[in-house]
Automatic annotation (TrEMBL):
Region feature Disordered, mapped onto this chain: 58-87
Pfam families: DcaP
Signal peptide range in chain numbering: 1-17
Keyword terms, alphabetized: Coiled coil, Signal
Species of origin: Candidatus Litorirhabdus singularis
Protein name listed in UniProt: Porin
Bias (Polar residues) ranges: 72-84
Length: 489
């Protein structure tokens, strides 16, 4: 360094008086000095790098997490005692200098998400008291005064939701999500219930999530909980395999069958009046509704193809079902074959606007519909000859989501489900339902939604009796998302 400094300094002092030949000689001397310096620095870097790698290897060997053979690094690379040229210090070979292999166990990435939603609802009429939080058209009475006088005000938080989702790299994902809207045994209650419990490994998924027969992306931007009555809408337990098809999707699944069975007009028929009654029928006190139940020994089989593109997407799904039933007192059983086709599309129009359409048709697919589901019912009014029959069903849904700007939007649409009837059905059973909705939604800031929606619904029974209802709903919804909650092995 001193030589270089002096040479540079001397050159600077004599530059004005030196001849061209002298300047050339001096510049060549400087160039050689610079090269010598660079070579010296390169040797120093190599020595430091070798010492660092050796220290790392020694530290790993001192406390290995797993058994390591002598002369090997933890990753299996052979350690070399060959000294680095120009030094007396041993270093690892080129193979050992390779970066140790990363752990094959991917990191866990998870996030908590959900929303708190409060609904204020005024119903101009009345529905089943267990379903006042939403306009489910099958709960509309067809006889005036069934549930009391017209007019009902409701506050509800049942739509509030909480979930956790995450992955272990690209191969493993999981989802666990619940909400406060009680159904089934908890009908009418504000209580936690599972929406999704779903896990995937590569292309295989198992658990409970959206049925492979449905298209969740045609659900409109509405705030009423239940949504379009004629939409295929079902979260089901299943095992699904999705084939790799680029941007498109093709998937098959086997799903929990859960036959929706009705004994129709024979609901209150006592066991003694049924064909082939048991000898002790008089002591039983049972009715046909008590004795007949679904019998499911085979899962439902579904297939779905979805085409994605700049236009949006369209989808075709099919299902085949084995609809079984049995009689508890005699063990007699029977079955019917159900099938269905569901076609749907979400089409881009202007800006962020979407036209969302669905037409579904089949026999014995009522259990997969959003409302009014029935799969099989008696085919005759004569109990001595009555057997089971699948119910043909048509479901239609058509909605348009319009975005006025980034803060305001409107959804408007109509949906219908229409079931054929059998001679053995009861007059008061559900036959047809319709719903229409229009709203104005406002997002004043991130994660906050204020919305007002007007709804109209109609129910028609097998007998032809009809009932209508209309209501207005105001909602406040606040989303939350923790982002990446944790990263751990």
């Amino acid at each position: 360094m001193a030589i270089l400094f002096l040479a540079t300094f001397g050159y600077s002092l004599g530059v004005s008086a030196a001849s061209d030949a002298q300047r050339i000689d001096e510049m060549e001397a400087q160039l050689q000095a610079q090269r010598a310096l660079m070579e010296q620095q390169q040797r120093m870097l190599e020595k430091m790098s070798a010492e660092l790698e050796l220290l790392k290897a020694n530290r790993t060997a001192a406390s290995p997490p797993t058994k390591v053979e002598a002369g090997q690094s933890e990753s299996g690379h052979v350690l070399s005692n060959t000294p680095v040229p120009g030094t007396a210090e041993p270093a690892m070979s080129v193979a050992a200098a390779t970066k140790p292999e990363a752990s094959k166990t991917p990191r866990l990435s998870a996030q908590v998400y959900g929303f708190a939603q409060a609904d204020a609802i005024y119903d101009f009429k009345q529905v089943d008291p267990n379903w006042t939080d939403t306009l489910r058209v099958s709960t509309i009475p067809t006889q005036s005064g069934t549930y009391g006088n017209d007019g009902d005000f409701v506050f509800s938080v049942r739509q509030s939701r909480l979930g956790i989702k995450g992955d272990y790299g690209d191969d493993v994902t999981f989802l666990l999500e619940g909400e406060l809207f009680g159904v089934g045994a908890d009908e009418g209650q504000t209580t936690l219930r599972v929406r999704h419990a779903w896990a995937t490994y590569r292309n295989l998924g198992m658990g409970q999530t959206w049925s492979n027969f449905m298209d969740i992306d045609i659900f409109p931007n509405t705030i009423d909980y239940w949504g379009p009555t004629g939409m295929v809408f079902y979260r089901n337990q299943q095992a699904r395999y999705t084939f790799a098809t680029g941007a498109d999707e093709f998937a098959i699944s086997i799903e929990d069958p859960s036959t929706a069975l009705s004994v129709g007009r024979f609901r209150d028929t006592t066991v003694c009046n049924l064909p082939n009654p048991p000898e002790d029928c008089e002591s039983s006190g049972s009715t046909a509704e008590d004795l007949f139940q679904s019998y499911n020994e085979l899962p439902d089989l579904t297939g779905r193809y979805r085409k994605n593109g700049d236009f949006g997407h369209f989808q075709v799904a099919g299902i085949v079902r084995h609809l079984g039933y049995e009689r508890l007192d005699t063990g007699a059983k029977g079955d019917e074959i159900g099938w269905g086709i569901n076609t749907s599309a979400s089409l881009k129009t202007f800006g962020q606007d979407r036209l969302k359409l669905q037409v579904a048709y089949g026999e014995g697919i009522g259990n997969y519909m959003n409302d009014g589901g029935l799969d099989i019912a008696p085919d005759s009014a004569d109990i001595s000859t009555a057997s089971a029959e699948t119910i043909p069903l048509l479901g239609i849904s058509a909605y348009y989501d319009h975005y006025w700007n980034q803060q305001w939007s409107t959804s408007i649409g109509w949906s219908m489900t229409d079931l054929d009837t059998t001679a053995g059905q009861a007059p008061g059973e559900f036959k047809r339902g319709q719903i229409a909705q229009v709203n104005v939604l406002h997002h004043p800031t991130d994660n906050v939604m204020l919305g007002t929606e007007f709804l109209w619904g109609e129910r028609e029974d097998v007998s032809g009796a009809r009932g209508t209802d209309y209501r207005i709903q105001f909602s406040l919804k606040v989303n939350f998302d923790t982002g990446n909650l944790m990263q751990a092995r």
